[in-house]
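To fix ideas, we reproduce below a protein record of this kind.
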Amino acid sequence: MIFDDLYLDGIAACIPDRVTLTEAVELGLCEADDVAGMDWLSVALAGDVAAPDMAVRAGLEALAMSRHPAADFAILMHATCTYQGPDIWSSSHYVQRHTIGGSAPSVEIRQGCAGMVASLELAGSFLTAAPDRPAALITSADNWTHPLIARWRGTQWALFGDAATALVLSRRQGFARLVNVCSSSLPELEELNRGGEPLHPAGPTIGHQVVLPERIQALRGDQGAMAKAIGRAESELIHRTLDEAGLKPRDITRVAHQSAGSRSIVEHILEPFDGELALGTWEFGRRLGHTGASDQVAALHHLLTGREVRPGDHVMLLGTGVGMAFACAIVQVLDDLPARGL
């Protein structure tokens, strides 16, 4: 969806301390076999800091950068992947209570690792639907420190890292312009993240640990064909997002994508850009871990504060989540942020 008057007016990334893979083994956090042969360098660990509290911290930092008072915010969206706190409770309203307050609607977005990018389209559509909606606060946060989550062997391509991010989306001004956001789905592949696990009783209620490779092993069908279908969907969405914006792959300065420890996976993600590794954010991401919905905005924050992108540059945000859900956004940098390293 092309937007003519939407801007990013605040951005923040809450990144906990990181431990190297060697330190993780020495500390007994994982087995050497769990991380053998991986290209990851370190993983961010939040310990016992709750995900919503990290989101509040990121949200307040983004609000401090923004020029919008709390009364301007017409909605809050909180993107999540894993457990936020008590069951039958709303983490998004907790984040709202401790950031913008007020009576605006507050919703949780469950689009997996594409959640933060998808939220840009949802929040942008909400703001432009009425003239009296100046701004939206979008947050994301996950803490994978949980006995039901296999942080160190939860996927075949990632180690889970903890983080929170926040964006202020504005109809008035900002350091970057939101040019276009597109999304798509492959619902026929929802079983990739379900495998043979029954829908009832729900896994967490019976203490079933999430180990995604085990679910994939339980799949029936051609897994190679599934991987190709995902690749096609990602590529088609990238080109659609570019075409709608009147841009070519060469017009994109950097791509803020999901964190992956495998060089080959990142090159596959960047295939529409000739697999140019330097165009992406692999070096940043493999020091962070896969943080769920926070990967793309954390990477964008890193590019902006490190002055790796400058005014006039176009940055693509690319996310793939369970479902399968795909989301792609293009932002154009208008002003430098204060230089600050993560």
